[in-house]
Amino acid sequence: MQKVARLIDIEMKMLCSVEVNSVLQRDCNVMREFKWKEFISEIEHNTPLMYHILMACTKTKQPRSNRVAVIGMCFAILLKSGIAG
User: Fold this and answer.
1) Residue 47: what are its φ and ψ, rounded to 5°?
2) DSSP string of the chain?
3) Most Cβ neighbours (<10 Å): which of 26, 28, 38, 72?
4) Is the model's pLDDT at 58 over the cut of 90?
């Protein structure tokens, strides 16, 4: 479990680094054009472990149209709280 936590911590730090052109680091004016799918794609690319954990946690028998938003909000809460970073 400690290895998983360490990998998540590394992923989050990488996502928040200035080397990554993250949607999270863009100007507020650009955020008006925010797209959940772009954010999820970024999470999948830059934080694959966290992405797969959130995908598993939000899997339902019936597909839900708001799954992308739910994943994004969960990710944002974890990032803001410092749990995953």
Assistant:
1) -135, 65
2) -HHHHHHHHHHHHHHHSTTS--GGGS-TTGGGG--HHHHHHHHHHH-HHHHHHHHHHT--SS--TTHHHHHHHHHHHHHHHTTT-
3) 72
4) yes
- CA pair distance 33, 8, nearest whole angstrom: 28
Nearest to 76 by CA among 64, 31, 29: 31
User: Are 72 and 34 in contact, with CB atoms under 8 Å apart?
Assistant: no
CA separation, residue 62 to residues 25, 36, 58 (Å): 34, 20, 11
Question: Are residues 84 and 12 in contact, defined by beta-carbon separation less than 8 angstroms?
Answer: yes
d(CA 1, CA 32): 38
Residue ranges of the domains in the chain?
2-81
